[in-house]
Design brief:
The complex is a heterodimer of chains A (587) and B (182).
Chain A lengths: L4 E3 H11 L4 E4 L6 H8 L5 E4 L3 H15 L3 E5 L3 H15 L4 E7 L15 H5 L5 E4 L6 H13 L5 E7 H5 L1 E3 L19 H12 L4 E5 L1 H6 L1 H14 L3 E3 L14 E4 L6 H9 L2 E5 L5 H4 L10 E6 L13 E4 L2 H14 L6 H16 L14 H12 L5 E5 L3 H9 L8 E2 L10 H11 L4 E7 L10 H6 L5 E6 L4 H10 L15 H7 L3 E5 L5 H10 L4 E6 L33 H5 L2
Parallel strand pairs in A: 2-3, 2-4, 4-5, 5-7, 6-7, 9-10, 9-12, 10-11, 12-13, 13-14, 15-16, 15-17, 17-18, 18-20, 19-20
Antiparallel strand pairs in A: 1-8
Chain B lengths: L15 E10 L4 H11 L6 E8 L4 E10 L1 H12 L4 E6 L6 E12 L3 H12 L3 E6 L2 E8 L1 H11 L4 E6 L3 E4 L10
Antiparallel strand pairs in B: 1-3, 1-4, 2-3, 5-7, 5-8, 5-9, 6-7
The chains are: A alpha/beta (587), B alpha+beta (182).
Bound molecules: flavin-adenine dinucleotide (FAD), thiamine diphosphate (TPP) and magnesium ion (MG).
């Protein structure tokens, strides 16, 4: 078929359709009006009108993370693009595939400080995996297709395409996506056989092994989680997951030690500290995980499976790097493991598990019960208990203590059902992300576990939720504090609660109602279950505000600058001197 | 002793200087990407040169002289490699023998004794005179960085008033190419 001549904006719509995009989250403005005109003229591509561009990006992130597809965003030039920046960096740090189309002033005005001009490619260069400024309509089809390829290939990430208005109105030949090999960006996905062989050798000799898996398993797709689960069960090794990896292995299985890291479980962190062989699967040794670097798992041989060579040896020294996609690597590893007919050292493993059981017996997530005030941990536990038998439950979070309590007390059985802002820790992520998830899964139960401070950061998206009748449930743990900030102030700054108390909070019930939703408020532990049930049974969108103990701390905690075996717990917290000067400078 | 994925011994804490050649698509913003990577992540740039080397394929070659521990150098290469328009990265310092050259234009002003002495030294260094007036010379000198620096040091007391240097360009010895065929 001969290539058809299309305008730039027609090409945009055509390319999105050819790339399988069904939904685009956006907000119009002068520079993108030609695209909005094309959106008006068709009905295949669905446009979701958000209330602020930041909301569009987080919504696309939620959409992408819960489906495995590339999320798509459309914003105007200048303030539209700059509002998108936080979300782009959020997607960058959490490896979420996005394509963000930004309007730009016409090419002849670029550099003139024209109305609503921003150096979008300059501003977004360090917050995107790649970005493009399209200077001619002839380059547009290639760039559009390439952007999707780059966003989803290798370690996924956000890609920006800056679209000058004249390019959108110009006419050129459209080229459909072809199976062309990208000329420079071709990441290695299949592992070297020698590395696999060495990994089998190391793992088969392990006496105290641990599997530490992360977001890379989710990025690789549901099959990678299946393979991870079979390998773990085949070997009988203990496994821990990062915040980004939750769901990659069934949360209720006995081999799962819980999340590791700063607010991870005692057993997971101790196992990491004491292990002799560590198998890292698609995780990146973040500082929330390692604590003090020179005390991190001092006696282990470390194997690191990652698709991005820059993740290897970034902070922690790796003994055996295995470059490739988790899916391919685990497939080969399982094959090699079977072929080698490995007999793990049963006796050693048994005593390792015995040791782990001792750590488990500490029951590190325990908290002091209260029958007058709702403990935030209880609220999450009840939410989990009352939803765990449902088929499709997706949870998003905001950022803070509630996020950590959700990670600790909610169990995820499968991948792509947990969306949280890990790397950037963006307050205001959860509500728009939940919106994106609900768009992708209209019949599922989608809950944003929120804090009263974070939720206000993108509260305007209730408008979007109302407009598209998305039955999103916002479960607000209201402690009246920026709890996570208050906790650090208590532990590090002599309980001087500088600017972390929120006065003049809205009436969340009326707030929900004003957007046409349902508001519920619960203060008594006795009424908690009923409130949750009422929330779950409501077809409409709901804000369920749970008044929780204001000064509850999130434990266990490895203070910044400390080692894994220097954890502090709920009962024996020391204030003031608990953290060294070195630790205080860290975040 | 373990090695990194680029073959270096990553346990060494010694800070070393490396010359890295990067083959990139010659497209707008590519240099900003490379420089932004170095400044954003706090890596050193001791010198950087760039020019298109394959016009037909639109490829440019960037030569960067940087320094750091083995682990940092490895990070730098991995970070460069994951930039989308980067075709290949090679560490000329550890991947085998290579040649490095730099060119400088050095302006020396003066008359009498000093002027004669400047000419004499230029001759020893095989620097060429590319401009001369009654009271000045511009010398062109090519060589390793150390040679250029020695020349500059000697010229300073003789009336050196201006220098322009290209920065290092480098290439591996032997028949292999990092660019592939035309
Ligand atoms: C308040 C707060 C507290 C936090 N506390 C904790 C905590 O206690 N514990 C914790 O774990 N986190 C915590 N985090 C999150 C933390 O900051 C990091 O975001 C998180 O630990 C990173 O997870 P990850 O290592 O799984 O990496 P990700 O960011 O998910 O990165 C994935 C890795 O896998 C690789 N990869 C991607 N795709 C593939 C593929 N297909 N195949 C192979 N490899 C692939 C990538 O290159 C990358 O190296 C906290 C965050 C906040 C905001
Ligand atoms: C945009 C943004 N600003 C500031 C912070 C720093 N910060 C981290 S947690 C937090 C408090 C969150 O309060 P809330 O939403 O009420 O959650 P809680 O910790 O009380 O559960 C703040 C201010 C952040 N993560 N993101
Ligand atoms: Mg709060």
């Amino acid at each position: 078929m001969a290539n058809v001549d299309l305008t730039g904006s027609e090409m945009v719509i055509k390319a999105l359709q050819d790339q399988g995009v069904e939904v685009v989250f956006g907000y119009p403005g002068g520079a993108v009006l030609p695209i909005y005109d094309e959106i008006f003229k068709q009905n295949k591509l669905r446009h979701i009108l958000v209330r602020q561009e930041g909301g569009a990006v987080h919504a696309a992130e939620g959409y992408a993370r819960s489906t495995g597809k590339v999320g798509c965003v459309l914003v105007t030039s200048g303030p539209g693009a700059t509002n998108a920046v936080t979300g782009l960096l959020d997607a960058m740090l959490d490896s979420i595939p996005l394509v963000c189309l930004c309007g730009q002033v016409p090419t002849h005005l670029i550099g003139n400080d024209a109305f609503q001009e921003a150096d979008t490619t300059g501003i977004t260069r360090p917050c995107t995996k790649h970005n493009y400024l399209v200077k001619s309509v002839d380059d547009l089809p290639r760039i559009l297709h390439e952007a999707f390829y780059v966003a989803r290939t290798g370690r996924p990430g956000p890609v920006v395409i800056d679209l000058p208005k004249d390019v959108l109105m110009d006419v050129g030949a459209y080229i459909p996506p072809a199976k062309i090999k990208h000329k420079s960006y071709v990441p290695q996905v299949k592992p070297d056989a020698a590395a696999i062989k060495q990994a089998v050798k190391l793992l088969s000799k392990a006496k105290k092994p641990v599997i530490y898996a992360g977001g890379g398993v989710i990025n690789s797709g549901p099959n990678a989680s299946k393979l991870l689960t079979s390998f773990t069960q085949m070997t009988g090794f203990p496994i821990t997951l990062t915040l980004m990896g939750l769901g990659a292995y069934p949360g209720s299985d006995d081999q799962f030690l819980g999340m590791l890291g700063m607010h991870g479980t005692y057993e997971a962190n101790m196992a990491m500290h004491d292990c002799d062989v560590m198998l890292c699967v698609g995780a990146r040794f973040d500082d929330r995980i390692t604590g003090r670097l020179n005390a991190f798992s001092p006696n282990s041989k470390k194997i690191h499976i990652d698709i991005d060579p820059s993740s290897i040896n970034k902070s922690v020294r790796i003994d055996l790097p295995v470059i490739g996609d988790v899916g391919y690597v685990l497939e080969d590893l399982i094959k090699a493991w079977k072929a080698a007919q490995v007999k793990p050292d049963d006796k050693a493993l048994k005593s390792w598990w015995k040791q782990i059981q001792k750590w488990r017996d500490k029951d590190c997530l325990a908290y002091i019960k209260d029958d007058k005030v709702i403990k935030p941990q209880l609220a999450i536990q009840r939410l989990y208990e009352l939803t765990k038998d449902r088929k499709d439950v997706f949870v998003t979070t905001e950022v803070g203590q509630h996020q950590m309590w959700a990670a600790q007390h909610f169990k995820f059985e499968s991948p792509n059902h947990w969306m949280t802002s890990g790397g950037l820790g963006t307050m205001g992520y959860g509500l728009p992300a939940a919106m994106g998830v609900q768009i992708a899964h209209p019949d599922a139960l989608v809950i944003d576990i929120a804090g009263e401070s974070s939720i206000l950061m993108n509260i305007q998206e209730l408008g979007t939720i109302a407009q598209y009748r998305l039955p999103v449930k916002v479960f607000v743990l209201n402690n009246q504090y920026m709890g996570m900030v208050r906790q650090w102030q208590e532990l590090l700054h002599g309980s001087r609660y500088s600017e972390s108390y929120l006065e003049a909070l809205p009436d969340f019930v009326k707030l929900a109602e004003s957007f046409g939703g349902v508001g519920i408020r619960v203060t008594d532990p006795k009424d908690l279950d009923d409130a949750i049930r009422q929330m779950l049974e409501t077809d409409n969108h709901v804000i369920c505000e749970v008044a929780v103990a204001p000064e509850e701390n999130c434990f266990p905690m490895i203070p910044s600058g400390c080692a894994h075996n220097e954890m502090i717990f709920g009962a024996d917290v020391k204030t003031d001197e608990a953290i060294s000067e070195d630790g205080m400078v860290l975040v | 002793m373990s090695t990194g994925i680029y073959g270096a011994n990553i346990h060494s804490e010694e800070i070393r200087t490396h010359t890295i050649a990067v083959l990139v698509d010659n497209e707008p913003g590519v240099l900003a990407r490379v420089i932004g990577l170095f400044s954003g992540r706090g890596y050193n740039i001791e010198s950087l040169t760039v020019a298109e080397t394959r016009h037909r394929q639109g490829l440019s070659r960037i030569t960067i002289v940087t320094s750091g521990t083995a682990m940092i150098i490895e990070q730098i290469k991995a970070q460069l490699n994951r930039l989308v328009p980067v075709h290949s990265v090679s560490d000329l310092t550890i991947e085998g023998p290579s040649v490095e050259r730099e060119l400088a234009l050095v302006k020396v002003a003066g008359t009498g004794e000093k002027r004669v002495e400047a000419l004499r030294i230029a001759d020893i260094f095989r620097a060429r005179v590319v401009d001369s007036t009654n009271e000045s010379f511009v010398f062109e000198i090519v060589g390793k960085t150390e040679k250029l620096e020695a020349f500059v040091d000697l010229m300073r007391p003789l009336g050196l008033i201006d220098i322009s240097r290209t920065g290092v360009v480098a290439i591996a010895r032997g028949p292999e190419s990092m660019e592939g065929q035309d």
